[in-house]
Amino acid sequence: MDRDGVLLPAKSGEFIAKHAKHVKINKDGNEKLCKEILSSIKCNQLQMPDTGSDSIHPSKDHPRAVDWVFVTDALNFCFWSKNKEKQWVVDGYTGYFALEAALNRAIKNGVDITNPEFYSKITKEQLLDIMKGDNDVIIPLFDQRISVLHEIGNILLEKYNGTFETCVKKANKSAIKLLEIVVDNFPCFRDEAMYNGRAVSFYKRAQILVADLWNFFNGTSWGQFEDVDKLTMFADYRVPQVLVYFGVMSYSDELMNKLKNDELLESGSDEEIEIRGCSIHAVELLKKRIEDEIKEKHLNVSVPNSSLIDYYLWCYRRKHAKEVESIPYHKTLGIFY
Alpha-carbon distance 116 to 104, whole Å? Predict the structure, then answer.
């Protein structure tokens, strides 16, 4: 995959970590989190902290299951609220799980939300109804979500026979090829920035889309990718929070004060880029440390890939929310995460 001089996420993370001024990766924290993850590997599988959300995930039995995952990840961005503000809540769920709950409810009610013929022309009133919460709070960046649905819907209709399955087929069981197809053809997934004179990338939603298909279909059928281990973690605002909680990363006093004061970080600012880039590199270093530990101790377990480590940390934050909330997370307005 080559994006005209844009560094891919793993190389971007390494480059950003090398030049970062506001974020630091710490060896001691890496060791601590390595032990935590190794202790969670049972029966050769990384056990995810239970978040109690299985009932709202997309259904494998749905005839448009692949398109269900695609639409969900296309809308998977910016759920946070300012401190003390009311959150968007659906059926008691917040954040990404609220999105899953809203889409799950819509499909149960017969709304054709997996069909680009419908959502490429979706109206404000229709989307408001689909995303209706338990209170009067509207899902954040509502107008941008309408634009995203119109964009991806029209592209699927014009280029891919009205279904994301066509893109998966073209990828020929390659996670990186599917990532390339998504980033090259769907602008709303093109998560790139300039940092220290270089074009860098994170591709959070594009990578999580591929990983979700892999995980959703248990590495078979539509989720069979022979190179899924080449994906990095998905640089958002919650996983970095967990990395700081474990001491894997630390912030400068200036940056930490901004986060404690709930100041927005501008999309594309050095501080925001460093948080995301260092998160990617920190997880790559963590994965390598886990691999070394497994080899040194001759453990009969497989090394979890970056997407599994990411999901573990994301679920950890959900399960241990009260403890982890002692660390402020950064907040940026935008459609990429």
Answer: 17
Do 291 and 297 touch, CB atoms closer than 8 A?
A: no
Q: Rounded to two decimals, what is the model's pTM?
A: 0.94
In the numeric block, the tokens 């398109």 are attached to 67
Question: Going along 131-191, which residue ranges are E strands?
Answer: none
236 among known catalytic residues: yes
DSSP letter at 172 equals T
d(CA 101, CA 128): 14
Query: For residue 195, which amino acid is it?
Result: Y
pLDDT digits (tens, 9 = 90+) for 117-173: 999 999 999 999 999 999 999 999 999 999 999 999 999 999 999 999 999 999 999
Contact predicate 89/137, CB 8 Å: yes
Is 275 in contact with 5 (CB distance < 8 Å)? no
Determine which one of 191, 212, 236, 270 is catalytic. Answer: 236
In sequence order, the 6+-apart residues with CB closer than 8 A to the CB of 58 are: 65, 68, 69, 72, 100, 103, 104, 216
Interacting residues of 101 by C-beta distance below 8 A, sequence separation 6+: 56, 90, 91, 93
CA distance 334 to 8: 20
